[in-house]
UniProtKB/TrEMBL annotation:
Keyword annotations: Cell membrane, Membrane, Transmembrane, Transmembrane helix, Transport
Membrane-traversing stretches: 21-44, 50-70, 82-102, 114-133, 154-178, 184-202, 232-257, 269-287, 299-321, 381-403
GO CC, any one term: plasma membrane
Annotated compartments: Cell membrane
Natural source organism: Dyadobacter frigoris
Membrane-topology descriptor: Multi-pass membrane protein
PANTHER family per UniProt: ENTEROBACTIN EXPORTER ENTS (PTHR23513:SF9), INTEGRAL MEMBRANE EFFLUX PROTEIN-RELATED (PTHR23513)
Record's protein name: MFS transporter
CDD domains xrefs: MFS_MefA_like
InterPro entries: MFS_trans_sf (IPR036259), TM_effector (IPR010290)
Pfam families for this protein: MFS_3
Length: 415
């Protein structure tokens, strides 16, 4: 009689280099989100224009999309650790420029428009760096653990990333109030330096030398062709992209905090952290109870739930109900993220991971940053409540369409 193998919820954490990777992911996400929240709030406080918030996302996503495919190609041919270190150095430089831009002497010299466009230029620079950082990071992760625990590593990777997403926005408003904008930016720079040290501790260096004889255009075509010909990857990325592109509310939370719920920067921090708290709790649960047994069914249900709770948030005028709805969107989003990340680790061949990760990054960033611009523009034209309400409804329509086209994926197992 065979003894059943006991599920080890902490198997991926037993690998030291994966732990360094997780610590870097946590600090990187935490620092960038603190920066995003405080800069967005400061710009809205100065301009009271929701489009100013959307422009931050647009300034970052345009260069990201422009270089991401090339970044994936570079990640497949070169030392990913060096790419991560160089990218982080550029991001630190961007934070340093923001630090100086918000010094009183610069604010006094620059006009409002000059100041805004200087800030957008910095986020453009950060977007360029992230276009190389993202595929290098995503394609390095599978090499740090054995293949049989990819699902577990995806859960922990998402957990630490979401922990950064909880702590970052959760403390951003308080840091803004008690430390001030410029001192918080200084703390962000120090945190990113720690990330550089953690990347240096990773010694694994998988490089695909077989790409040396392939032209860059052939390399990029191969990556795109693989994604668009692999149904489960294409639909998983599409669900994420369209739900967040139209249903996301994060970029315009300062509008809800200031004009609808009247809770100030501290309340904004709680609103911004609420979905990540829900995600973090769910991530820990999924380490023990993976959602990958009936993966596609769970994926569709979770994205549909995201749409429903987005609609509830749009209609709420009570701060705690709004927090609860955002908390629930985080639960739903975390389930779809773990399933999507597991899919992205299992299906791409090793020699194509960087390019596939870059395509995935384009989908994800298109939903986040372009979604931020779409939300800001729509809010300016129609107001925040109709924008979020319609976005949640579009999410449900997208789920319905994908369900009708992907019934054959219901039997697929990722474990």
């Amino acid at each position: 009689m065979n003894t059943p193998v006991k599920h080890d919820a902490y198997s991926a954490l037993r690998f030291p280099e994966f732990r360094y990777f997780l610590a870097n992911s946590f600090l990187y996400r935490c620092a960038l989100l603190i920066q995003e929240v405080i800069i967005a709030y400061e710009l809205y406080r100065l301009t009271h224009d929701p489009l100013a918030l959307g422009m931050i996302g647009l300034a970052e996503v345009v260069p990201f999309i422009a270089v991401s495919l090339f970044g994936g190609h570079v990640a497949d041919r070169n030392d990913r650790r060096i790419i991560l270190r160089v990218s982080l150095s550029v991001i630190i430089a961007g934070s340093a420029i923001l630090y100086f831009l918000f010094q009183p002497q610069w604010i006094a010299v620059l006009t409002t428009n000059q100041h805004l466009w200087s800030v957008y230029s910095v986020f453009f620079l950060i977007g360029l760096a992230k276009g190389f950082y993202s595929p290098a990071s995503s394609s390095l992760k599978p090499f740090l653990v054995p293949r049989e625990i990819y699902s577990n590593s995806s859960t922990w990777s998402s957990t630490f990333s979401q922990a950064g997403a909880v702590i970052g926005p959760g403390i951003a408003g308080f840091l803004y109030v008690y430390m001030g904008l410029t001192h918080t930016l200084l703390a962000i720079m120090i945190t990113m330096v720690v990330c550089l040290v953690l990347i240096t501790l990773i010694k694994t260096n998988p490089v695909n030398n077989r790409l040396s004889t392939i032209s860059i255009w052939q390399s990029l075509r191969d990556g795109l062709r693989f994604v668009f010909s692999t149904k489960i990857i294409l639909y998983a990325l599409s669900l994420d992209m369209f739900s967040v592109l139209f249903g996301g509310v994060i970029a315009i939370l300062p509008v809800f905090a200031e004009d609808i719920l009247h809770v100030g920067p501290e309340g904004l921090g709680l609103l911004r952290a609420a979905p990540s708290v829900g995600a973090l709790i769910t991530m820990f649960a999924m380490a023990h109870f993976p959602p990958t047994h009936q993966a596609w069914r769970n994926m569709l249900i979770s994205v549909a739930g995201f749409g429903v709770f987005t609609i509830i948030f749009s209609l709420s005028t009570n701060f705690w109900l709004s927090c609860t709805a955002l908390f629930a969107t985080g639960i739903c989003d975390s389930i779809s993220v773990v399933i999507r990340q597991t899919i992205m680790q299992i299906f791409p061949p090793d020699e194509m991971r960087g390019r596939v990760a870059s395509v995935s990054g384009i989908f994800v960033s298109s939903s986040n940053e372009l979604g931020a611009f779409e939300s800001g523009l729509a809010t300016r034209l129609a107001g925040p409540i109709p924008t979020v309400l319609v976005g949640g409804a579009i999410t449900l329509l997208v789920v319905t369409y994908v369900y009708s086209k992907s019934k054959d994926l219901f039997e697929m197992r990722l474990t």
